[in-house]
Specification:
This protein has 123 residues and is an all-alpha fold. It has helices spanning 2-28, 42-49, 51-54, 63-67, 77-82, 85-94, 108-119.
Amino acid sequence: MKRALQFTALVAALALLTFAVVVAAAARGGQGHGKTPTPINPAVTYARNCATCHGKDGRAATFKSKHHEHARDLTDARWQTDVTDERIFNSISNGKGKMPAFKRKLTTEQIESLVSYVRGLKR
């Protein structure tokens, strides 16, 4: 019974947190202009913006990467250990080498979610 109450409290807290994030996004996104805030899905953001060069699995084994430009293997454990979250965030925001900047295309929240997503690709 005690665990059921704890679980219910956790679910309620997560629901409240999700609601707060959506409300905050609506406030930033121009509420009243017909925009509906959408939850951030880093997998979708990655697929739309990063997978062309870095590959769906993050290994950079794509035609574009091999023949036009060298993209980093995001699964490389050594690189993952050496790089900071701030550096990944800055690379996504400002670009690096041939990688374009995404600060005008993606929100800060989307870029932050991509940093976590990239961290999850470590092998």
